Amino acid sequence: DAKTTQPPSMDCAEGRAANLPCNHSTISGNEYVYWYRQIHSQGPQYIIHGLKNNETNEMASLIITEDRKSSTLILPHATLRDTAVYYCIVRVKGTYKYIFGTGTRLKVLA
Amino acid sequence: SQTIHQWPATLVQPVGSPLSLECTVEGTSNPNLYWYRQAAGRGLQLLFYSVGIGQISSEVPQNLSASRPQDRQFILSSKKLLLSDSGFYLCAWSGPTGVGQPQHFGDGTRLSIL
Q1: Which residue, A23, A65, A107, B31, is most buried by CB atoms nearer than 10 A?
Q2: Burial of A26 by CB count in 10 Å (0-12 exposed, 13-18 middle, 19+ buried)?
């Protein structure tokens, strides 16, 4: 099954860039990588997704390695409100299922 | 724009009582629909997903069931709740093709079983 691996926790100073890594070495050729974040007691919020090329939107940037086995979510100027659990997920090939791991708990420090 | 509604926000139920959680999506047609459960401090566990009316795929054997009576309505049910059914229940939708289409989540229902 498609699986992602993320560090359980990270700290980042307010105003600095937060770089959250994800390993998805079993990703299939045409499957996207999706990133979400979940603030306590809320539903996950979609951030960004990508296939091969790097992507940027108003929330974050996504860097995908050339072999597509890993990616990094970048929050360019982290704020206290970015403190959350960040999930990197991929779809199970040939299905409509998405498997969530335990994510990375990011704490932005003042 | 598309919106997803999930209710109730919180629910306290006694063991052995029935359950019905409803989720509706607006602003899109033929979405894929999902039910997840999240235990305290844990990740999301996929319970059911549906790619069309009456089409339900179950991921985890349990005393829960799901139904999709209309295109944009997804219902999670139980005839008799167990203590282990406590958790945070989340509904989500994605576009029909799934490829390159992210999921969008509701605000969740926090279910406590007494």
Answers
A1: B31
A2: middle
Residues of A in contact with B102 (CB under 8 A): 34, 36, 46, 49
Query: Are the C-beta atoms of residues B55 and B101 closer than 8 Å to each other?
Result: no
Chain A residues whose C-beta sits inside 8 Å of any chain B C-beta? 30-32, 34, 36, 41-46, 49, 51, 87, 91, 96-103
Average pLDDT, chain B: 93
Interchain contact, A97 vs B90, CB within 8 Å: no
- The shortest CB-CB distance from B99 to any of A30, A97, A101 is to A30
> B46 vs A99: CB contact, 8 Å cut-off?
yes
C-alpha distances out from residue A42 to A63, A82, B9, B59, B89, Å? 26, 14, 10, 23, 11
Q: For the segment B89-99, what is each residue's pLDDT rounded down to a tens digit?
A: 999 999 887 77
Whole-angstrom Cα Rg for chain A: 13
Using one digit for the tens of pLDDT, what is the confidence trace for A40-75? 889 999 999 999 989 999 999 999 999 999 999 999
**Nearest CB to B103: which of A42, A46, A101?**
A46
pLDDT tier, B65 (very low <50, low <70, confident <90, very high otherwise):
very high
Q: Nearest CA of chain A to the CA of B100: how many Å?
A: 6
C-alpha distances (whole Å) from B5 to each of A38, A41, B76, B85, B104 are 18, 16, 14, 21, 11
Structure tokens at A89: 């997920």
